[in-house]
């Protein structure tokens, strides 16, 4: 890593703040937003759903921009746009304006979250990207740990609307300067002698799309993120249903972030002994057990902490596995555009998660949501086994 190390840690901090505001802000402030707006869960959920639909549409395009050397610019400029959209949603007086604000957030997410950051790092560091990506995720795993307590406090102080605006400020004054510094540092090192990578060769994405393995990987992580998105969006609702008090629910939700970091740290410290196959088994197995813990928490509410530990560790590993598996199974040529295309399925799943969860809760309550989660985790486990049996590039 040499001189790039400090810049990688800077990008890690930037991702932490962006995820805390743009990604987890809605879930962290959902109880307060219900009170502040008087709107239904479905209406509120339509906002982040629209945001991720916009993100899904634009991510392949932003992947091409990374391959053309513009990843750094997006990491600097788009969080500003995301903060404006989040603040606009917070002050929206009508559902239409609420959706407009979230559409702007979706535009920002397309070029400022993990996919852009990891593609930017992969282009810059090549074989050393896995270590750098792991470092970023070790820090950014604390985004939910920051978001849920901070959202709980901001909601109590300023209400749901003011809380969203405050989180927007965190993104604008926190993430943007640190991303600017990190990108400029990497660019200076590049000018000092590191050769720029060539732009994407034509036809690489089309070739990847013709391979069934590409679609297996995309659907695998799509199913995984649909399950995770539903559980995290309604974590406070689920925990309350299981019998947890409000403070205990917030504490349990805050444990998901450290659990992500713990899972990634274990993988990093045992990298020589735990290959991608072992990491995949551990990740998907933990997610299956996490849903089981939520079922049992109806009789023993303390098991919500077991859910937080298992779900956090499992989903934390997937953040590393997706770019690593794409590079291993499909190759590193055209990684930005291929990674962006593969990200569409998980992003669409995240987009669907708030609305799908709201519908399940309205139709059958928490049992319906947990039944869907169980089915999704078992499907993911089967798809993971298929992916790992395929030969590498």
From TrEMBL:
Top-rank lineage group of the source organism: Bacteria
InterPro entries for this protein: MFS, MFS_trans_sf
Keywords: Membrane, Transmembrane, Transmembrane helix
Record SUPFAM superfamilies: MFS general substrate transporter
Spans through the membrane: 7-30, 42-62, 74-93, 99-121, 133-151, 163-183, 213-237, 243-267, 279-297, 303-325, 337-363, 369-388
An example Gene Ontology molecular-function term: transmembrane transporter activity
Protein name in UniProt: MFS transporter
